[in-house]
């Protein structure tokens, strides 16, 4: 077995952490895991801030003793880099297109609804957050509609880019396959649901 | 002069569009511009949705007659791809780290405040948006603090990654250099302000 080079600083509650674990598994890259609990404030300590990340968020991919890479999708990109997925240069840009969409639109609606409703529970939310739920639900639905249109009408393969799985599928899968936690039923978006099933059927899926 | 291959579908109001124009200028890549007015609803028409982007947002980088690339940072990556900036594989991941940070945290706070306060005007905002301003201001300040810490304490060069300008600097510059539109004075973050000045001093800056 190859020597472990990478350590994932994670909270298993977060699918932003899971997407890095899944990328490593699919590429057969050994990955150490170091668990932190965000609900217990583990990432808010001066130690975490000084050693791991000033930004006090996880996931962070530790690459060596003193190199730490925040941002889940950059971590996936770094893991996949040397091995990569089969893409032309334009397909790599399209892959990043969906990864930026994921962080700019999908994660800030779907993942945030899931965190509020499933992890924290609606009864514990501030009035400000409760007031913001309807807008987040609209935004999440727009994301699923957009993904459905792309997969149903602009993809021959059922993958987001090209003919096989890429980081676009993995990064979008992370919070999409648990959309029920955010109050959505993927039956409404059959091509999106089918793409999730395809990810689950890939060898080494975990 | 090289033949123009790329068309930028843009609204000059948006710095997400400007960052693509700046990337092309710095790399001496000819770029056609096709203007759309978001305030006039140009991107909400069935024509735009069917031809340019189902997502009905700009910027979109048109690569050929039928290939359209949404997401500003993916468009910058695609333009820079063949020429690229000088980066090791890990520096490329670090560059993407800041580009994902920009879309997941900086753009959703700084750009959105700028759009509300400077483009639309506070007097025309819905009660929901007005209620959300304080949280966006806190989030924007956290972004500038994080950037300041990185540039002041973890960068030898004053650039975000490595020893020269990369897409990380360009993508963060877009909304940072006009932070005053969102109500912030960069004097509070001197290393961030200095990085903006460095971008402005690069040959072919526009």
From TrEMBL, chains A, B:
Entries under Pfam families matching the protein: GST_C_3 (PF14497)
Entries under PROSITE patterns matching the protein: GST_CTER
Stretches assigned to the GST C-terminal domain: 88-206
Signal sequence bounds: none
Protein name: GST C-terminal domain-containing protein
Organism this protein belongs to: Exophiala aquamarina CBS 119918
PANTHER family hit by this protein: GLUTATHIONE S-TRANSFERASE-RELATED, HYPOTHETICAL GLUTATHIONE S-TRANSFERASE LIKE PROTEIN
């Amino acid at each position: 077995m190859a020597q472990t080079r990478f350590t994932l600083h994670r909270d298993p509650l977060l699918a932003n952490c899971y997407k890095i674990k899944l990328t490593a598994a699919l590429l057969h890259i050994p990955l150490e895991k170091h668990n932190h609990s965000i609900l217990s404030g583990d990432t808010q300590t001066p130690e975490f801030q000084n050693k791991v990340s000033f930004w006090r968020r996880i996931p962070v991919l530790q690459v060596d003793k003193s190199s730490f890479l925040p941002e889940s999708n950059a971590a996936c990109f770094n893991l996949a880099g040397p091995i990569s997925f089969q893409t032309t240069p334009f397909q790599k840009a399209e892959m990043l297109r969906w990864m930026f969409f994921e962080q700019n639109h999908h994660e800030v609606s779907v993942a945030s609804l899931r965190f509020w409703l499933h992890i924290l529970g609606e009864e514990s939310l501030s009035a400000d957050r409760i007031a913001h739920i309807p807008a987040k639900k609209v935004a999440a639905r727009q994301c699923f509609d957009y993904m459905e249109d792309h997969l149903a009408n602009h993809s021959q393969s059922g993958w987001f880019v090209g003919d096989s799985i890429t980081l676009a599928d993995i990064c979008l899968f992370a919070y999409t396959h648990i959309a029920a936690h955010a109050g959505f039923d993927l039956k409404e978006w059959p091509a999106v649901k089918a793409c999730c099933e395809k990810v689950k059927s890939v060898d080494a899926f975990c």
